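Please review this one.

:::
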Amino acid sequence: MDEKKAITHVFNLVSKLYDNPSLRFFPFCAEKMVAYAKIKPGQKVLDVATGTGMVAIAAAQAIGGEGRVQAIDLSENMINQAQENVNRVGITNVDFHVMDGEQPDFKNDVFDIITCSYGLFFMPDMSAALKSWLRVLKPGGKIIFSSFAASAFTPQSDIFMNNLAEYNIIPPTPRWLQLAEEALCKNILEENGFIDAQVTQAQLGYHLNETKDWWQAIQSAGYRGLYEQLPQEHRADFQIKHLSEIEKLKTDKGLWLDVQTLFSTALKPE
C-alpha cells in the first residue's frame, strides 16, 4: 500500500470516532486559525485536509452568506462525517470534495485564504502541495497551517512507541516533526514562493479525566495506524500494559495532554 493510500485507510477507519472529547483540540485549533488568519465576511476559503470539517465550519461562520468554503480531503469517510456536521449546524456555504491536497483541482488565483489544520505534514510531497496552494491563491492571499510542536502528546506518545517496540513494531519518525519548529515552517513557506512567513505558538492542551480517554485518543486518530500493526492476539495485553504505565502520569487534575501547536501564516506575492 503506498503512502497516501495507507494514510487514507487510517482516516477512513477513524472518521466516526474523530469528533470525541479526547480530541477536542481540533475545534480549539479551528477557532484559533480563523482568528489568526483574520478571515473576513465574503471571502473565498479553501480548507485542505478538512477532516470532519472543524475549520471549514468555523471559516464558513466567519465569511457569512456572501463567502464560500471549498473543503477537501482524501478520505471519503471523513468528508461524509464533515457533511453530517455541517448539516447538523445548518451551514450552507461549504462544498466538500474528495480531493488530493497536494494537487487541488481548482483554477488559478481563486481563493483569498487557504487553511490546513494538522494536515500538511501528512503529505508525502509538502513542497508540491505548497506550490499548488500558491497557484490557487489570489495575489496577496493568505495561507495558514497548523502543526504540532515536538513536545505534543509527550510523554504518553513516547511510552506508546516504546511499548510497540516491545512487540517488534518500530514506528517511523512522527511526520509532524518535519514542521515542529518555527524555522522549519518559515523555511518551507519561503522556499515555495510565499512571503512574510510568520509563526505563532499556542498551547491547546487540556487534562483528560481518565486514563481510558488517552486510549480513546489512540483509537480515534493517526496513532490508530500503528496500533493496527499489532497482531490481534497481542492487542489486549498491549492495552493493559500501556494503560498501566500511562496511569502513573495522572495527577489530582487528571492526565495532562500537551498539544503545543504552531500556527504558520504567509502571503502570496502581489
Q: What stands out?
A: The CA atoms of residues 14 and 166 lie 25 Å apart. The mean pLDDT is 95. The longest helix spans residues 232-247. DSSP finds ten helices and nine strands in the chain.
